Amino acid sequence: xxxxxxxxxxxxxxxxxxxxxxxxxxxxxxxxxxxxxxxxxxxxxxxxxxxxxxxxxxxxxxxxxxxxxxxxxxxxxxxxxxxxxxxxxxxxxxxxxxxxxxxxxxxxxxxxxxxxxxxxxxxxxxxxxxxxxxxx
Length: 136
Prior knowledge:
Blueprint: H1 2-31, H2 35-70, H3 75-102, H4 110-116, H5 119-133
């Protein structure tokens, strides 16, 4: 189980790298004016999403394996699972935003995407505290 846990952490960290970077690309895209720059950002957004989605699936699969192997124990785990569900929803929202950017339908200004970028930091902080401290 320690191998499963180690790879779960590796895939979670890798997934979060994408969750942090994709909204930053959206910030740059929302501010871009040159056609070549816009096309480059579209390509980067699409490739990053295609890279990070399998990482998310692997992180979730290994997390489920750990959950089934060790069982549900304590309210902290229920809270963590709720936050993970929120991360999945956030990931799906980023995928929707990527499709909108690809179709040249930018719905918000760069400030909105800067705020969108902060959400995974808050979730990561909460999950780390829950897993480490197990407050309840």
